[in-house]
């Protein structure tokens, strides 16, 4: 037997139960991974609360992890027992061991620790697709990144600065502002004490930014659109404050013929070749030192409920790792 977090009904953090479960066995095309570290992400909250529908009930939450291959199913040829692997965008990581499709994992370079791998796969690959594919950031680009001191924010702001962008980030405290500036932000805006739309217009000389990366949702709407230049892009990739209400698409024309997209990592890495390319670019920028992954909180995996309370209470910064 091994242990895992199980959720039988959606709701608050207390619906997560630490239970003994059968030791997993791989089927064809699958492996069993013994986790060394598991990542914590806001998408885990969405599944726990029912905002995102879990594929089965009950279910094991979690979308990111790193560990060792301990069993290999029929037809798996490019992985073997003992390989170090990491993955993201596949639900079920809040477990000591789990079965996962072999084509959904990548080998973790020896130079990157299990904890770093678990802390960066979902957040780092999210930063990759946002900056390299959703809107291709390059020298001269000006971006606004909401929640700049969060897990994705600290990675993305470093990466955007490395690409030559001017980076503006919103934060919720002076301490988070200092942290964001140390991780690539040229300018920070404390949304609790400043009007972020007015401040962005001031910082850009009234022009607005090229792209807004928004994981906040409701509380940043419609201000995110008001920060954009004409023909700018609003990339709404999360909704930590709640979903954006239904909107009249005519508003996009009124505000400067704007573009809006609602991307998810699941789609961007659905093809094996895209997963490998995304992960490899992330490994490269981390190995080069251009992007540093900092783990600011750790919790025992069995205490995932406490980690969720702190995450939802905005008491965390950067990456958080759960340790089996």
From TrEMBL:
Keyword Oxidoreductase set for record: yes
GO molecular function, one term: mRNA 3'-UTR AU-rich region binding
Keyword list, A-Z: NADP, Oxidoreductase
GO cellular component: cytosol
SUPFAM superfamilies, per the entry: GroES-like, NAD(P)-binding Rossmann-fold domains
Domain Enoyl reductase (ER) as annotated: residue spans: 11-322
A Pfam family it matches: ADH_zinc_N
Name the record gives this protein: NADPH2:quinone reductase
Native organism: Tepidamorphus gemmatus
Organism classification: Bacteria, Pseudomonadati, Pseudomonadota, Alphaproteobacteria, Hyphomicrobiales
